[in-house]
Amino acid sequence: MTSSTIITNNSHARIVEFVSTLFAQHLAYTGMASRVEILNEGGFRSDGRRQFELRSINIDLSQQGHADGSASISHGLTHVLVSVFGPREAKNRSQTIHDRANLNVELSIAAFSTGDRRKRSRGDKRVMEVAGAIKSTFEPVIQTSLYPRSQIDIFVQVIQQDGGVLQACINATTLALISAGIPMVDFVCAISGGVHSTNPFLDLTLIEESDVPNLTIAVMPKTQKVSLVTMETRLHVDRYEEIFRLAIDAGLIIHEEMKAAVLARSKTLMTCIDLGTHGGEEME
Amino acid sequence: MISFASFPSRYEDTTYEKTRHHASVKEDFMDIDDAESFEAQGSKLTCPGESLTSSQAYMRGHGTYVENEEVIASVAGTIERVNKLVSVRAIRSRYNPEVGDLVVGRITEVQPRRWKVDAHSRQDAVLMLSSVNLPGGVQRRKLESDELQMRGFFEEGDLLVAEVQAFFSDGAMSLHTRSLKYGKLRNGQLVVVPPILVRRLKSHFLTLPCGVDLILGLNGYIWVSKHVKENEQEGEEGFDAEAVYSNVNDDIDDSTRAAISRVTHIIRILTSRFIPLSDTLLLEAYEWSVEHGSDVKDLLHQDFGDALVVSITSGQ
Questions:
Q1: CA–CA gap between residue A205 and residue A283 (Å, rounded)
Q2: Considering only residues 144 to 183 of chain B, which have any Cβ-Cβ distance to chain A shorter than 8 Å?
Q3: B162 within domain boundaries
Q4: pTM confidence score
Q5: A22: contact with B, CB 8 A cutoff
Q6: Considering the domain A45-274 in this protein, what is its CATH number?
Q7: Are B139 and B237 contained in the same domain?
Q8: Which tens digits make up the pLDDT trace of A96-122?
Q9: What residues of B are in contact with residue A262 (Cβ under 8 Å)?
Q10: ipTM of the complex
Q11: Within the 38-57 window of chain B, which residues sit less than 8 Å (CB to CB) from chain A?
Q12: CATH value at residue B296
């Protein structure tokens, strides 16, 4: 069921490494290491992944409620749901822009989504920041000039978080916009990356995110243009380029996954349409 | 490990082939430059960012853009080609109006000499005071007194059926109701479906033999109402204001109410499975549901709906 994505695949004997993982874990439990190891001697991370291995991705593009487009994506345990409404008449006349559509992003983080239960209001600084990041990521990608004086509403709901919330939000928004039939220049594929001493790795979990310097990038696969780079921690400048390039490659892999989901969904819908049309013709 | 899944889709199968990727292995999805493959298969699918063809040989249509002399898709959907024009039609999108289309809409706002109408499009449509019929059927210029009683014709929240008359420079559409077929709607209920599922038909006013009238708006708004006999319709001579712009429903007997809700349920069942609506299909489905189910509420069961769809699409 997993679609775990391996980017590099060195063909070492995995069994040997597994044993060494066990040994490392044993050391950790017996008090040799004080906290979770980010990368053990066998080259495995705390959740058993290799350095460049991404978490399993699950995409659901089925219709939710009366939204024009909706998508939910999960990267491992991080789960985000996005509904898109529009382009439609702006609720607030002051928000209309005469020559292009206005993008309205609202983010809500479920109180139960993290370990410590806590309610975040819409005005929360962190929430506003992520919403702002999503908005600025998509403004150059959506062809807003086709819809003057309209508004596109994007409602993002974080259901579970285990690191990489922004990346999941951006990927889910891309899929929801596509399923709403809103014209975009390209997909936007986001991924996080971090560095532990000198070892770069991808798609961080919550534990890793709080421990190592990390960044999130959003890439447009066709041109490989980068629409967003954010860093909330300090990263050594010498390590930056390596992790940046690696993240772009990972973005392309995520693109394959998203594209397959979109095409499969389109195919399903087209078959239904054909089925109904031909069934009707035969009756006449 | 506990994992929460979102509510799974009830109707659609969303599984797709899961693959393991390696950066060096990439499959190419399409190669449409050769014209034969273009025409051979009716519907080729594409998604944003996919290069379709070179812009020197082809012209770009809707759903595409040009960059570096390449025509590139900007929406996910089917590729269509008419001579040298390449366009991509999105599978689900908002309604794209065209002049002459029949739409059902809801008044959202009353403004000086015009109404704003929500018609499931990218902007609210405009219905000018000069493009509605006056009560009494008289043809004359609209006076200031008419302007003052605009809410007597249409109020916020009223539903109406109209035709797309023209476009404004910013792409907003202008409607008109200057025909006896058009005007305020009552005695029924509204169903909202994706616009792509309403195809252009010879007539969008359908009368089903079960005593139900249907108005299939091309914008995906469908009005299901009690049947009004031809000779009882508000005619040219007896064109009185009360009847045409009335807000009061007629008496609707129980069997008609049941028929109306049966038809709405059928429409919902078909559209939730993404099957385009047509008069024959609706009729077939109605007969099937009367034969097989004793009650209207049976239609709400999923397996009953599945059986209905299977039986009517198999073309018995």
A1: 56
A2: 170-172
A3: yes
A4: 0.85
A5: no
A6: 3.30.230.70
A7: yes
A8: 998 899 999 999 999 999 888 888 887
A9: 47, 76
A10: 0.84
A11: 43, 45, 47-49, 51
A12: 2.40.50.140
